[in-house]
Amino acid sequence: MHPDSFAGQAAAAACDLHEPLRGGFTSTRFVLVEPSHPGNVGAAARALKTMGFSRLVLVAPRVPQVHCDPEAVAMASGADDVLAAAHIVPTLADALAGVQWSLALTARTREYGPPPSAPRPAVQDACRQVAHGGDIALVFGNERTGLSNDDVERCSALAHIPANPAYSSLNLAQAVQVLAYELRLAYLGEGLPGAALPVAGRAGGAIGADGVLQQGAGSPLATSDDIERMYVHLENALIALDFLDPANPKKLMSRLRRLFARSGLEREEVNIVRGIAKHILMLKAKGGESR
């Protein structure tokens, strides 16, 4: 082979290595809820960039302008662009606006909420959700207290890193690195060109090695905010039926959240549930007027 031809191939290969990643890499948000230490935020930004991700969302960080904090900038170590572009919001609900599926990372067992899984099967689920074309989010809690039960219940799925039980304490940025690495392997099909993941339980649709949908998928999944509005509507209907006592709810809504989280609600399914709730409330209101 002529040396110039070899050089040309090498240059093309180098160009491919630096080609911007698409698909799941750009539709995945990494959400840090109430991070305490600026250094951890900077290190998390670095962890994301090394794995090809760039969307960092911070929920009520202890240092309001943490993306400008000198310690955060120092720990970002070259990922200053990811840190500077971090989106800061007041609540997890704001962070999940428009998200169709979210994964909460937790270090402890929860009585309620989605059943936990290890990171690898959890990110395979993430790939299937990305195949539907919307955003997904990975949610990490505060360094000291983790995620609240309310935060966990707001997410679609739950993951736990099976660390050494004798010393399972992971730094926030380390946990982000583990999930970002697993997600990168899943999106790239573990380096196999053309590898595709099936969309479980859906007609048609597969996600390719670049994280892009290859075939037509089923009905669009509902977003996080759509589902939250459904829960409010459903809760009001159950209260109107006297099925739910707001003074003694007995974790009913938590159990319903867990039930619906397992199903992967489509937008049309959310509309059906809200339609049922609407008619219950309308009928109860008519009954009250007749009395």
TrEMBL record:
Pfam families: SpoU_methylase. The keyword Methyltransferase applies. It is an enzyme of class 2 (transferase). Keywords: Cytoplasm, Methyltransferase, S-adenosyl-L-methionine, Transferase, tRNA processing. Residues 29-181 form the tRNA/rRNA methyltransferase SpoU type domain. GO terms for cellular component: cytosol. It comes from the Bacteria. The keyword DNA-binding does not apply. One of its GO terms (molecular function) is RNA binding. One of its GO terms (biological process) is tRNA nucleoside ribose methylation. SUPFAM superfamilies: alpha/beta knot (SSF75217). It catalyses: cytidine(32) in tRNA + S-adenosyl-L-methionine = 2'-O-methylcytidine(32) in tRNA + S-adenosyl-L-homocysteine + H(+); uridine(32) in tRNA + S-adenosyl-L-methionine = 2'-O-methyluridine(32) in tRNA + S-adenosyl-L-homocysteine + H(+). It is found in: Cytoplasm. Its EC number is 2.1.1.200. Catalyzes the formation of 2'O-methylated cytidine (Cm32) or 2'O-methylated uridine (Um32) at position 32 in tRNA. Belongs to the class IV-like SAM-binding methyltransferase superfamily. RNA methyltransferase TrmH family. Homodimer. This is tRNA (cytidine/uridine-2'-O-)-methyltransferase TrmJ. It comes from Paraburkholderia lycopersici.
